[in-house]
Amino acid sequence: MTPLIELKDVSFSYSTGNGSVEALSGLNLSIDDGSFVAIVGSNGSGKSTFAKLLNALIVPSSGSVVVDGLDSHDKSNVYAIRSKVGLVFQNPDNQIVSDTVEDDIAFGLENMGLGVDEMKRRLEVCLSLTGLAALRHCSPDMLSGGQKQLVAIAGILAMQPKCVVLDEATAMLDPNGRRMVLGLCHRLNHEIGMTVVLITHHMEECIDADRVVVFDKGHLAMDGTPREVFSNAPLTRSLGFKLPPVTELAEHLISSGIDIPHGILTSEELCSALKAAYAREVHSKGVHANEVHAKGSSAKVVHDV
Amino acid sequence: MSRNAAIGRYYPVPSSLHDLDPRTKLVALVVYLVSVFVAQGFAGLLLPVAALSFLMALSNVPVKYVLRGLKPILVIVVVTDIFNIFFVDDGLKKAFVMTLRMVETIWGSNVLCLTTKPRDVSSGIEKGFGWMKRLGVPVHDFATMISLAFRFIPILSTEASRIMEAQKARGANFERGGLIHRAKALVPVVVPLFVSSFKKADDLAMAMDSRLYGSCDSPTRFRPFVYGHCDFVAYSIMFVYVVLFVLARVFPCHLT
Question: Does the beta-carbon distance from B206 to A97 stay under 8 Å?
């Protein structure tokens, strides 16, 4: 796959009352076209700065951000970059501009100066992609948090970007809203090959990503598939965040002496790993079988709850 | 939430008044306001009331809802009436005229706001003042500001009540004490409200920037202005109104 976004040796610092703070330093990262990348890291690790860099809302203090061949340092590229990379923010109320769903989706298109027919065509496509057609005439005040974020995403989709960046867009949502937003992101990624960059605090949201990138104090701390990243439990814990629940449970089982591999991500994987362990146990000893069986079923119960 | 923002809030019901082009309604409002302020004599003053009653019947907005919008000016009306009646020669007549004018002004603007979406009001204004663009006035930005202000009224009002509840939970009391005491009690509400609205404004500005606001010299409209035949009927009615009004002005029948 070809890289859509390339960050080369990017640093960004902003000035506060007493001196300047470096939010990102020496970051090298490229994001492939059509990939689903999850970015995690604790507060102040530079995730939001990263999101704004991708969208040319800010330009790096040193180094370069190149989106689809366009360098964000060049002022004439700014609008082209913004139309290629759409940004969804955390607070749904603070990014909806208009007083109906339809008008809000059209906001970006009005700014682009498109004709009415083209706007209507794109609006229909976006409404059907996001499943908002029934709410098209609603005022945003009447929608749930999750629905508002869908509107925000639809507004960006209408601009036909190559990449959608969600800057902790699920942080203020209830579980149902989070499911709606994540479901849409994965659908966009699969169906129309949209590149998705998901910045989040919730580890379980990263499991289905192609790649997980961990930020720590402005540096890139880990980078790999979810399995690679979550296999390294000591390092992820030392960076100050919890593993996904199933992985956490599997790690506990491993440390209590059960023979299953590291980096288990889903309950299905855990079940089959436990079954395999159980079979091996029966095969070799046959005595501890009941014990292992009991742990296997409790693991399942814990996840289902 | 909606209680605080009841003044001039859009009331979504289907009606021929709602369907009119916002430009028509704005022109009508201007004609109407001019007529209210140059009116003289009995007929001149009552003509706007008659016109407005007719429009209210057309709008399908409940009368109660329209009249509620007049509440905020009640105090001003009463105070000016007291001054007029007791301290001015021929005060009773002047108080009557003044009251009628104030009520007519607010009432008329209310009917416009209740039947026109804020965004349409602002784009109507944008269209109407479009010629000022040539003088370097950022008309589009002003119109956007107006519609955003409307959009954020309910959001900020929810925010205000949330902060008030938080302060109440820590023992603040907004109901007890005299006027000054109560005003002082509001300071810990107003300050965080200001801070949070700046944060909101900042976020919103970023969201608008990332959606290409300002990228194009002539942004288009999703709902272009198109005059329908309703608008021609409306303009004809306005014409009749102006004629009637001029007649009332030329042949006034005075109150005394």
Answer: no
Q: Which residues of chain A make contact with B208, given a CB cutoff of 8 A? A: 97, 107
Q: What dihedral do alpha carbons A140, A142, A147, A153 form, nearest 10°?
A: 0
CB A252 within 8 A of CB A244: no
Residues of A in contact with B119 (CB under 8 A): 98-99, 103
Q: Which of A233, A98, A285 is nearest to B221 (CA)?
A: A98
Chain A, chain B: beta-carbon pairs less than 8 Å apart: 98
Nearest by CB: A110 against B10, B147, B221:
B221
Q: Say if A172 is an interface residue toward chain B (CB within 8 Å).
A: no
Instruction: Quick: pLDDT tens for A268-298.
Output: 989 999 999 888 888 887 555 555 555 555 5
Chain B positions touching A141 (Cβ under 8 A) are 154-155
Say which range, A74-78, A85-89, A288-292, B188-192, has the weakest mean pLDDT: A288-292
The b/e string for B217-249 (b: 16+ C-beta within 10 A; e otherwise) is: eebbebbeeeeeeebeebeeebeebeebbeebb
Q: Are A172 and A91 in contact (CB under 8 A)?
A: yes
| Cβ of residue B192 closer than 8 Å to a chain A Cβ | no
pLDDT-above-90 percentage for chain A? 56
Decide if B210 and A99 are in contact by the 8 Å CB cutoff: no
What pLDDT digit, counting tens, does each position of B74-130 carry? 888 888 888 888 888 888 888 888 888 888 888 888 888 888 887 788 888 888 888
A265 at interface of B, judged by CB pairs closer than 8 A: no
**Chain B residues close to A95, C-beta within 8 Å:** 203-204, 207
pLDDT of residue A290: 55
Which range among A4-8, A241-245, A301-305, B2-6 has the greatest average pLDDT? A4-8
What is the chain B residue with the closest CA to A93?
A: B155
Mean pLDDT score, A80-106 = 91
**Radius of gyration of chain B, Cα coordinates, nearest whole angstrom:** 22
How high is the mean pLDDT of chain B?
Answer: 84
Nearest to A106 among B212, B217, B222 (CB): B222
Q: Express each pLDDT in B230-246 by its tens digit.
A: 899 999 999 999 998 88
Determine the distance from the C-alpha atom of residue A4 to the mean position of all C-alpha atoms in its chain, rounded to a whole number: 16
pLDDT at A234 over 90: no
Query: Could you tell me what percent of chain B has a pLDDT over 70?
Result: 95
Single out the residue of A203, A201, A205 nearest to residue A181, CA to CA: A205
Q: Where are the domains of chain A?
A: 3-238, 245-304
Cross-strand partners of A70: A67
DSSP 8-state assignment for residue A250: H
- Distance (Å) from the C-alpha of residue A111 to the closest C-alpha of chain B? 5
* Predicted interface score ipTM higher than 0.90: no
Longest pairwise C-alpha distance within chain A: 75
Sign of the torsion formed by the C-alpha atoms of B118, B120, B123 and B128: negative
| CATH entry 3.10.580.10 includes domain A3-238 | no
Interchain contact B118–A (C-beta under 8 A) = yes
State whether B148 and A97 contact (CB < 8 Å).
Answer: yes
